[in-house]
Design a protein that fits this description.
Blueprint: E1 5-10, H1 22-32, E2 36-41, H2 67-76, E3 80-84, H3 85-90, E4 102-105, H4 107-116, E5 119-122
Parallel strand pairs: 1-2, 1-5, 2-3, 3-4
Helix pairs in contact: 1-2
Amino acid sequence: MAGQRLLIFQTHGVGEPRRTYAPLFFALTAAAMDMQAAIWFSMEGVTQLRKGAAEQVELEPGSGVTLKTWLDQAREAGVELLACAHAMGVEKMTEADLMEGVRIVGVAGALDRCLGADRVMYF
């Protein structure tokens, strides 16, 4: 499995906290297995990447472990965090609104990654 490419589509945003974590669990596990993992945040998923937003989301309230904790761990593990350019426009976000370490990718770029990935997951 080492070297395989995994692309994960994340469409859920900060308004649905319980749906934000699974893609990160899979991406972190893939990175630990020496796979190349990327998460493409589309639709409301881009709201997770807005500066300051992920700090407000806890999977278990009161745990002190936020969505930002998991996003940082993913980035540090080498997981690519990709923001959908079109979804950013819908959410009225600009590049300046994004947390550090996020790349903006358009639909053509996402499709290209799909075709080059060994596996694609959708959340």
